[in-house]
What we know:
By secondary structure, the protein is of the alpha+beta class. The chain is built from 5 helices and 8 strands. It has helices at residues 2-24, 51-57, 131-137, 139-146, 156-169; strands at 29-32, 35-41, 45-48, 62-64, 69-77, 83-91, 102-105, 111-118. The strands form 2 sheets. A 5-stranded antiparallel sheet has the order 3-6-5-8-7. It has a 3-stranded antiparallel sheet with strand order 1-2-4, with no helix packed on it. A hairpin with a 2-residue loop joins strand 1 and strand 2. Helix 1 (2-24) packs across helix 5. The radius of gyration is 20 Å and the shape is globular.
Amino acid sequence: MLHHSSGLLRLLLCALVWIVRAAQSEDKITVIGGVARSDTVCWTCPSHITNAACNRWAPNLPCPLNDTVCRTVHVFNTKTMNTLSVEKECIKPSLCSSNNVGCETSDDGNTEICISCCKGSLCNEEVATDDATAQRQSLNIHSTLQTSHSEGCLPTSSLLALVTIRFLTF
């Protein structure tokens, strides 16, 4: 029984940590048209030929509930620095790890693609044109991902499932 109680205590402590973090989070939940959305708003557009055109086109809608990070993909000519395309979207934080951001030049050296991510409403107004800028714009995502789980606690979905199971079994 003691082992069972210590497991429950640890589970409750993890739940408390999750509740406190959720209360401190910048991401609040909004329901629009019956769909849960976060309070994060990103500039979003399908492929446009300039950053200004993308930002003008972008609807001012909150991101879907779990897509709380803004990602920008900028493709440009390395010789002229002219933009070839800009795409902006809301995505899950896990898709913006340090391995998924930065710039890469095409094999022929004529085109470069820069991917950057940021957290915060309308944080992706500008586009990156070099690796240092893409990494710098993405810094707040990397630090958030590294501290998103408490030591020894389960991810939120697993934690909630276990809490539900525990309460159903008592």
